[in-house]
Design brief:
With about 400 residues, the chain is an alpha/beta fold. Strands 1, 2, 3, 7, 8, 9, 10, 11, 12, 13 and 14 form an 11-stranded mixed β-sheet that branches. It has one domain: 3-Layer(aba) Sandwich (Alkaline Phosphatase, subunit A). It comes from Undibacterium jejuense.
Length: about 400
């Protein structure tokens, strides 16, 4: 497929994993033509309620479908933050309003997987493999993208923050997993000379294992060197960093600024399965959105000028029902909203083929329909931002639909 055709359709090594404590490291191959473009992907596990993240307050059905959890209209007490006169942002995400006004934040509504499963496990698997409906895919789409990037592969080119290597970054290409929190960039038992030397001797007779071990140590040393804890403490004036996601995004920004080899980062957050007591402008969902918004704002601020070369994608496995349930929450749905932030993003706009919340407009009479395949958004990011070749795009996103809505997420 030619590049112009691929963009039109969007318009809308064998690696070895070695577990070292809480960290998992990988070793594999290399390429050429270095690129400084960065991609950060944040997965919201549990299916976030996109209808209250970017609320269609202008739809007459919105408030009636959600009598106790709908956001108020902009200007009302606890109302949504106006985006375009029809859609409004959840007030707990006020930290992102400046990025919207600067046109560096965009949303794609009615977006998601064409597979209709309402299983968290299956839907997350499909979103991480980018092969909806196919459970046998052996690797994740971020790993396939990583393998196709120009330039030299290093142990820290692709980084996951979390307890284990996620599905999305698993595969043949080199990737590094570090623990969330400060422990991920601090010295561990392998940094003791006597222990490290013992492992070196253990792998001396096996070049493959020795290479994997050396890559693991190299990646760990880079993470420690790039963490810049002293810089963070000085910037905070002695005040402790916020817990959870804002803390991790501060650390990730320092890693990316101080280690130019880092090009792709994955993070995941749980707790979005709000079947009961979801709340509206305040409550359970709001309490989780606030640190998410703060963490994203921190990441952008601390990346500083590097944000111009960075794209951040926020996604979740599926949306939630348009109508609230009897427990003051929402159940598993279909279409959702994707978020794209970046220095070169054509933001300040809600993209997508939005059809409304009328019974005849909803999927199966209950859910937002998926009118934009999530893979077309990801592929456009990889095409226009990471400059992935047409051949590598087809490998990263096989069986991609050839027609989509007229969406152009980047300034050209």
């Amino acid at each position: 497929m030619k590049r112009r055709n691929f963009l039109h359709s969007l318009s809308l090594g064998s690696g070895l994993l070695l577990p070292f404590g809480r960290n998992i490291w990988a070793a594999t191959t290399a390429g050429n033509n270095e690129s400084q473009k960065k991609l950060v992907v944040i997965m919201l596990r549990g299916a976030i309620d996109g209808l209250n993240v970017v609320a269609p307050f202008g739809d007459p059905n919105y408030a009636s479908l959600r009598p106790t959890i709908a956001l108020g209209r902009p200007g009302q007490e606890n109302g949504a933050l106006n985006l375009d006169g029809y859609f409004g942002l959840h007030p707990a995400l006020a930290d992102l309003q400046g990025l919207w006004q600067e046109k560096k934040l965009a949303f794609i509504h009615a977006c998601g997987s064409p597979d209709t499963t309402r299983s968290h496990f299956d839907a997350q698997d499909y979103m991480e493999s980018a092969t909806p409906g196919k459970k046998g895919t052996s690797d994740g789409w971020m790993n396939r993208v990583l393998a196709g990037l120009p330039g030299t592969s290093t142990p820290t080119r692709g980084v996951s923050i979390g307890a284990v290597m996620p599905r999305i970054l698993s595969g043949n290409a080199v990737a590094t997993n570090i623990a969330s929190g400060a422990a991920g960039t601090k010295a561990n038992v392998l940094d003791k000379p006597q222990v490290g030397n013992a492992f070196e001797k253990l792998y001396q007779g096996n070049p493959k294992y020795a290479k994997a071990y050396e890559d693991a140590r190299e990646a760990h040393q880079e993470m420690m060197g790039a963490s810049m804890e002293n810089e963070q403490q000085a910037a905070n004036g002695g005040a402790p960093l916020p817990a959870g996601f804002p803390d991790d995004t501060n650390r990730v920004a320092s890693l990316m600024r101080n280690d130019p080899k880092i090009q792709m980062v994955f993070m995941a957050l749980g707790g979005w399965d709000t079947h009961a007591n979801q709340g509206s402008a305040k409550g359970q969902l709001a309490n989780r959105l606030a640190p998410l918004g703060q963490g994203l704002a921190n990441l952008v601020k601390r990346l500083d000028t590097l944000f111009d070369d960075t794209t951040i994608v926020v996604m979740s496995e599926f949306g939630r029902t348009a109508k609230q349930n009897g427990n003051g929450g929402t159940d598993h749905g279909h279409g959702n909203v994707m978020w794209v932030l970046g220095g070169k993003v054509a933001g300040g706009k809600v993209y997508g083929d939005w059809r409304g919340l009328g019974t005849n407009q909803l999927y199966e009479g209950r859910d937002v329909a998926v009118t934009t395949d999530f893979r077309t958004v990801l592929a456009q990011v990889c095409e226009k931002h990471l400059h992935l070749s047409d051949q590598r795009l087809q490998i990263a996103f096989p069986d991609m639909p050839k027609t989509q809505n007229n969406i152009n997420l980047f300034i050209t």
